[in-house]
Each structure stands twice: as C-alpha cells, then as structure tokens.
Design brief:
heterodimer, A: alpha/beta, 6-stranded parallel β-sheet, about 45% helix, elongated, B: alpha+beta, 5-stranded antiparallel β-sheet
C-alpha cells in the first residue's frame, strides 16, 4: 500500500511538472535567446572611420533584432594587432555565446581567435579572412569582386580599350592584392587590355607624384584605378591639376573628398562597400545555430559602383553619406 | 436466461481509501488549477496584447505630434519669410534695388535667418532663392555647390509645382552648399509677389534629420521594437535598417502598412516572431509605423511567469494538503480496522478509540459495544460450562462405588461370621467415616487434615480386605496439614493403584501416599510397585475412549486432572510416571490455599 502511495505521488508530481513545463515552453518560445551575447572585435573603433562605424551600426542592428546583448570593441588604429589581441583576450574572458572579429593581419590575432574557438565559443570572421589557421564561419568583403567591378568600370570608361594604371598602397597588403587581382582579371578579358601597378605606400603625396610621372609618359594610360582613398585623392589631384579630363579615375571607398571629386566629375566612379550589411550579417551568422558540416561557411558582401548620375538615389545616399544617427 | 451479474467497478481501483481520496482530491485540484491557469493565461495574454496595442498607438500618436510640431515650426519660419518685406524686395523681379543697396538687404535677411537659427537647434539652414538669380542664406557668405544647382533639386521643382503651398521632402543629403553634405528634411515653398500671383522665388528650411531619428530612436517599444516612416507611395522615408532593406536582406510589411488606415494596428506573425504594427498618418503625407514584438513587452513575461510560479506552488501545496487530508480522514477507519484485526485474533479486551461522533465514531462505538457483548457472552458461556463441569465432577466424586460398598459390606459380614468383632467394628466405623466425608456437600475445599483422615479410612478398609496382598504407608508432612485441598482428591488414585496395580500382581504390593510442601505449591504422590502401565495405557487415561452408555464408570484420572485445572488454573494438575513391572507414580500438584 505504501508503495502504491509513492507511485501515486510521483505520478501526480510528474503530471504537474509536465503541465508547468508545457506552459513555460509556450511562455519562453518567443523570448528564447534573450540570454545570448555577442562580443564584436573590430579592426578599428575610431569614430572618424565611417567604414567601421557603419560595421558597428550593422552589428548593433542585428543584435537588437535577435534580442541579444552586444559589446563592440576595437583598437583606434586599424593596424594595431597588440590591442586587438588584448581585446580578443577580454572577449575570451567575458565568455559570450559568440564572438565576431575583423582580424588584423597578424599571426597572433589568428592564434587568439583559435584559442576562443577551442573554448567552444562560436566565432565569425568578417571583412578579411584570418592570416593563418583554419577558417571559421566568415562574412567577407569580396575585394576581388570589387576589383573586378572597378576594372570593368574603368574598361568601359576607356571605351573598351583599357590601358590602366593601378595605384595600390603596399605590395604586401592583402586587401589591395585582392583588388588588384580583380582589376587585372576584368581587364584581361579585353584583347588589348593593359595594366601597370604602382605603390603609393599609403601616402597621398606619393600617389600624386606617381600620377604626375605617369601623365608625363609619352603614352599615358587612359584610366586609373586607385585601390584606396589616399591613392585616389593623390591621383585625382594630379589629374585635376593637369586638366587631363580624358583620363578617368575609378576609386574605392567613400570619403567626403572623394564624393566631391565625384560630383566635380574628376572621379568617374567609386566602388563602395556595404559595411553596415557586413556587420549585420556577421552578427546574424554569429547568433545562428552552427551549420551542418560541409555547408558553405563563407559568404560575401557585395560592393556597388557609384557614379555621378546615381549618387543621389535614396539607396546610394545611405551608402555614401553614412548618417551618424543611422540605424540604431 | 439469467442476466450476467454487473460488477461494481470503482472509479479509483486502489486498495486504500486514503489513496482513493488523495487521487480524487489531487485530480480535482490539478484540473481546477490547470483550467484556472489556462484561463488566466489567455485573459492576461489578450489583456497584454490590448494594452500594448493601446500603448504603441499612444506612442505613435506622440511621435506624430512631435513631427508635426517640427513641421509646423518650419511652416511658421516660412511664413515669417513670406511676410518679411526685406525678403520680398530682395527677390522681387521688379524691385529696383541697386548693387550698392543689395549688401544691407542681404545682411538684414541673413541676420533674421540667423536669429531664427539661434533659437532653433533643429533647423539646419534657411535659404531663399529668387527667380532673379539672387539668393541669401543664414550665413554671411554662401558658396553654392557648382555641381548642384538649386534649380535641379527636387525640393525646388516640387515647390514650384505646388504654387505657394509648402512641400515637405523625404530625408535626403543636402548638397547645394559647397563642401556640405547634411542629412535633412526640407520644407520648400514658392514665394509670391505682393500681388499674390507672380512668383518671385523659393524659400527653403532644412530640418536636421538627426532630430527626427533621435526622436524615433528614443521611443521604447521593447528590446526589439522600432519605428519607421513611409510616404504615401510606400517609399521608405526613414527606417532604422534602411540599408538592409535596400540590399534585400530584410523586408518590411509596407503593403500591409499602406492598406491600414490611420490610428489602427494589426498583428503579424511570421518567422521573425509575433509583432504589432501601429499605423498613424501625418498630415504631411507620411505614415508613422510603430513595431513592437509580443515577446518583449514590459511586464508581459514577468507577470505570466509569476502567475505560473504561484500556480506551481499552489499545486504543490494542494497535493500536500490532499495527502494530509486523506490521511486524516482515513485514520479513524484504519484505527478501527486495526482493532478489528485484534478481535479477529481473539483479543476481546480491545477498545476502538472514539475520536469524533461522526459516522466513523459511531461505527467505532457500535463496534466497541458489539465486542463488549461478545466478550460478556463468551465469559458467560465459559463460566456456565465450568460450573456445569464442576458440579458434574463433584457429583462423580461424591459417589461411592457400589462395588466397593458391596465388597466392604461383604468383608464385614465375612469377618462377623468369623467372630472377629474388633475388625468388624474397626471396618464399619471406617466405612461410616468414609461415607460421612463423601456426603458432606457444603464445601468443595477441605483442609488437608480431613483429606488425610479420609485416605486413612479408605486405606484401612482396603488393607483389611486385601490383608495378604496390600501394604500401605502414608507420609504427610505436618506443615501442609493446615492448607486446603479439593475434597476426595486422592481416593481415585489409591483406588486405581489397588485395582489396577496391586491386585493383578502375584506378590504383595505396597502403596505409598505422600504429601509434601514445595516452594509455592503442595505436591501429593501416590506410588505403587504394581504391574505398571504401557505408554498406550497412559495415553488411554488422558484420552479415554467413549464409555458405553449405562456402564457406570469410576472417576477417571483425566477427570481429576481436569477438575484441578478448572479449580486452580492450568499451572496445576496431574502427572503420571509408570514403568511396566516396576510400578506407577502419580503426582498431583495443587496451590497452597490458606485456611
């Protein structure tokens, strides 16, 4: 009889527990994930960097949409590997559910990321892949595709006979390397396509000097692709001074100076990335369940070609003039 | 054909009432709580939904009012410019302001605009463009962007088309001033000449978009909630995730919003979760939409979680109470059951406790009465039986064996013929005493002295009869004579010793009758050296075969044993030791009964 009573009590308790569990599940179904947190380590948290501010805004928007807590950090300089390693260690200590990182090109950063992954924290790499080591889930800027777009635009501007000067910053830069490869690929499709590479070492004046020298050549190129902002500004200055409007410039990124050059018609096209989307997709990927093995772990954000005629469309305004109150 | 017997099937096929009660209660409580919780959950969920819809509606109305007030403010500024004489003269196509006079006009207008701008932090810039090619702004020196002539801007064209009515633009980058790219909302208006018909120019006020976006961002619609604005055509005026929508990474329910009339709300439930859309029209043609997620409205989760916790505690408490109650209710029944089981085992001293005068109390009382009655009846039966037996035995005891009487009288006659007068006298007097002892009926218990006398007389008679065969000794301790014994206790044993032990023996036999005091009892022994008995014979003594009716039988040893036990209790009685051809010893044990 005593046994009987225990079985009975147990049955009742189980029933009650089942009822409550059911209600709890129903109750928390909508709010599941409120405990999740994302730690974002960017290349730069400088408020003057429109690009990284937009990444940050996109990341915050994704976190808000998912109802997750977010912490966005980054060194002031986008080459400061020491600080980024330290921030990654902070992230590791905070034990978030996922980490999003835009890695600086440094092996120590790769090691720190690997360390976080080993602890079972989901890591998503954005912007550029890790310098070394296995690739976790990535949302990357497709710099090669951007380069192709630039090459294509320059080729069209040159009337289908591209003879293109590429002004890069450093031979060792991976970003510039990718873009350069993209430009060459696009130009290579034209039978008489030619390219020539120059390195401005991230100096506007050096780019200016280079471009002056190029213009003094007996047979100057008919288009210039400047792979970053300083190169574009320097090259544009040289061309503007020379009054050589025949030579078209295609630049990257979207500073106010570049925009003005675009308005003035000195700059013919700008290849603009979508940093907001990258931050958004990065955090969104970080908050997703781990994908099955063999699934596509790398996705790319696209870039668009902005010219004087389409720069004030609603879509492009948003990209070119990152309104600082935007998004979040 | 007989109908099959329908068996009664209990609702709760359990073995104890307690379990049944507990189950019944628990089921009742569980069902009640579950139903109540479900109903309250439903009620509170719908109440929360209603409340949050009202709340969002209120908030969006507030947003509308605020935006409206910004627009009204811009409108007022435009009216100010409209009515300002300086502005009118300055842009008038038929005024005769010379180049020299132009500067003071410009300065006055610029000062006016500047003073307005000082009081309003939300205004980015104020400008006037005359159709006569003149323009003035809130700045001293205004350099226009050569690549963006005002005549080509949409706000300029729209204002011309509206013909005097003010026009509000969507948020855009204002690029007409060189090196300035600001996100603004523009209000533009065509200025009329004093005649009210001819148009003289375009007036422009720019509102900082950050004012609007700050306003929208500060609105708390839960963790994930947000506000966005669309215009009449469904173009997005403002959305916190505008870039994502342009990139098709996100979609917004614009068609639903356009369909919804102002001041209403609708609910959307898709894979992004359940959310409420509240739509409010402004009179500048924008639709302000508030979106709140059902999951993170304040108080929604907490309240429900609390109520659930309370009902969980309720269920636990109810289960405990139901167990305790069923225990409490069934306890008297279990007590009664325990008492009954004791009675079943033969204990009639049991009394079931009567705690309350409810049904079970009454049952217990009735049970107690019944047990009492049974006990009385049992006692009565036992005592009746005992008395009957006692009197039967006493009757047997008091009877003198007629054979004995006959033989004795025969012996007396024989002795009288032999002229043995002394022996005749002795034997006759002994017989007389024997008789007297057996007919005194007044007492059951007699002093041992009297019993001793009786056995002497009897032995005397027997010895005289069997002179050649029988010898006897009587050895009684003096100390025991004062105690009492049952009347005529020893005579049957002596009789048996003579008739069954000695008489069948060829030689002389001796009978010894002893009486001695033990520590807490008195022991008599009747010992003979006769033929003895086999085991079967002894067994026959204890369980005699039923005697043939009518055949008078002597007092059996079994009967005496029974009489002793009836009188003194089961600790006393008769034991027999016998060896074939050696003799028999009977031991009789009785308690010490004082005078």
């Amino acid at each position: 009889m005593r046994n009987h009573r225990y079985t009975l009590a147990l049955t009742l308790l189980l029933t009650a527990a089942a009822v409550c569990a059911g209600l709890y599940v129903k109750l928390f179904y909508t709010s599941a994930g409120s405990e999740r947190s994302v730690y974002v380590v960017l290349k730069s948290s400088n408020v003057r960097s429109n690009f990284w501010q937009a990444v940050s805004a996109g990341a915050a928007a994704a976190a808000k949409e998912a109802g997750a807590a977010i912490n966005i950090q980054g060194p002031l300089q986008d080459t400061d590997a020491d600080t980024q390693v330290r921030l990654l260690e902070d992230a590791f200590a905070a034990r978030p559910s996922s980490v999003v990182v835009a890695p600086v090109d440094d092996a120590r950063v790769s090691a720190a990321v690997q360390n976080i992954r080993n602890a079972g924290i989901r890591v998503v790499v954005i912007d550029m892949p890790l310098l070394t080591g296995k690739a976790p889930v990535s949302v990357l800027n497709d710099h090669r595709e951007a380069g192709r777009q630039a090459g294509e635009s320059a080729a069209e501007l040159s009337g289908g006979h591209p003879n293109i000067a590429i002004v890069s910053n450093f031979a060792s830069s991976r970003v510039s390397g990718e873009r350069e490869a993209g430009v060459k690929e696009a130009v290579g499709r034209y039978p008489d396509g030619k390219t020539q590479i120059y390195y401005s070492e991230d100096s506007e004046d050096k780019a200016y000097e280079i471009m002056k020298a190029v213009l003094a050549m007996p047979e100057p190129p008919n288009a210039v692709v400047a792979l970053n902002e300083t190169a574009a500004l320097g090259a544009a200055r040289a061309i503007e001074e020379a009054g050589e409007r025949r030579i078209k410039i295609v630049g990257f990124d979207s500073s106010v100076y570049e925009i003005r050059l675009l308005e003035d018609g000195v700059m013919s096209a700008l290849i603009v990335q979508k940093p907001f989307n990258m931050g958004y997709l990065g955090v969104k990927a970080a908050l997703k369940r781990p994908e099955p093995k063999g699934a596509d772990r790398v996705s790319y954000t696209d870039s668009i070609v902005v010219t004087k005629s389409n720069m004030y469309t609603p879509e492009n305004q948003k990209l070119l003039f990152p309104f600082d109150g935007d998004g979040n | 054909m007989p109908r099959p017997f329908r068996r009664y099937v209990p609702i709760f096929p359990l073995k104890s009432i307690q379990s049944s009660i507990a189950v019944a209660f628990s089921c009742l409580i569980l069902v009640t709580i579950a139903v109540t919780t479900l109903i309250s959950y439903r009620l509170s969920a719908s109440a929360v939904q209603r409340n949050s819809e009202n709340y969002i509606e209120e908030v969006i109305k507030q947003v509308n009012t605020n935006i409206q007030s910004y627009v009204d403010n811009m409108e007022n500024i435009s009216l100010l410019a409209l009515t300002n004489k300086d502005v009118k003269y300055y842009i008038s196509s038929n005024s005769f302001i010379t180049e020299e006079e132009r500067r003071p006009y410009e300065k006055r207008i610029s000062d006016l605009f500047q003073s307005i701008l000082y009081t309003r932090k939300d205004i980015a810039s104020i400008m006037v463009f005359g159709y006569n090619g003149r323009y003035v702004s809130d700045r001293r020196i205004t350099t226009l962007n050569p690549n963006a002539p005002p005549q080509r801007q949409s706000w300029y064209i729209e204002a011309q088309r509206a013909g005097g009515k003010s026009v509000i633009s969507a948020p855009h980058v204002q690029n007409i001033i060189q090196n300035e790219y600001r996100w603004v909302v523009s209000l533009s208006r065509e200025l009329k000449n004093t005649d009210g018909i001819t148009a003289d120019g375009i007036f422009l006020v720019d509102l900082n978009l950050s004012v609007v976006s700050d306003l929208l961002r500060q609105i708390d619609l839960g963790k994930k909630g947000y506000v966005f604005i669309v215009d009449r055509e469904g173009n997005i005026v403002y959305h916190p995730q505008q870039q994502l929508i342009y990139s098709n990474l996100r979609t917004e329910r614009i068609a639903d919003v356009l369909r919804a009339p102002s001041g209403t709300s609708f609910t959307v439930s898709d894979r992004d979760g359940k959310r409420f859309y509240s739509v409010q029209d402004t009179n500048i043609g924008w639709k302000i939409v508030g979106v709140a997620y059902a999951g993170d409205l304040i108080g929604y989760k907490g309240t429900l979680r609390n109520s659930l916790l309370i009902s969980l505690i309720g269920i636990l408490v109810a289960l405990l109470i139901s167990l305790a109650l069923s225990h409490r209710l069934s306890r008297p029944i279990r007590n009664l059951q325990r008492s009954m089981r004791l009675v079943e085992k033969g204990n009639f001293e049991v009394k079931a406790p009567v705690q309350q005068m409810d049904e079970i109390g009454q049952l217990s009382r009735t049970f107690n009465m019944m047990v009492g009655q049974i006990k009385n009846l049992m006692d009565e039966v036992i005592s009746t039986q005992e008395n009957k037996r006692k009197s039967e035995l006493a009757l047997l005891q008091s009877q003198i064996n007629p054979h004995f009487l006959y033989n004795t009288l025969d012996s007396i006659v024989w002795m009288a013929e032999q002229k043995q007068h002394e022996e005749v006298v002795l034997m006759t007097s002994a017989l007389a005493r024997l008789f007297r002892a057996s007919i005194t009926k007044d007492q059951e218990l007699v002093p041992i002295r009297v019993e001793l006398e009786h056995i002497r007389n009897y032995m005397l008679i027997q010895q005289m009869r069997y002179t050649s065969q029988l010898e006897y000794r009587i050895e009684f301790e003096d100390g025991i004579l004062k105690y009492k014994t049952l009347k005529i206790l020893l005579q049957p044993f002596v009789e048996n010793a003579i008739y069954h032990g000695i008489r069948n023996k060829p030689e002389r036999g001796t009978i010894v009758v002893r009486g001695k005091e033990l520590e807490d009892a008195i022991e008599f022994e009747v010992e003979d050296d006769g033929v003895g008995m086999t085991e079967e014979a002894i067994e026959k003594i204890w369980n005699p075969p039923p005697a043939a009716p009518g055949l008078a039988k002597g007092i059996g040893i079994g009967n005496v044993h029974e009489r002793i036990r009836l009188f003194f209790g089961p600790a006393y009685g008769v034991t027999i030791r016998s060896e074939l051809d050696e003799g028999t010893r009977i031991t009789i044990k009785i308690p010490k009964v004082e005078q």
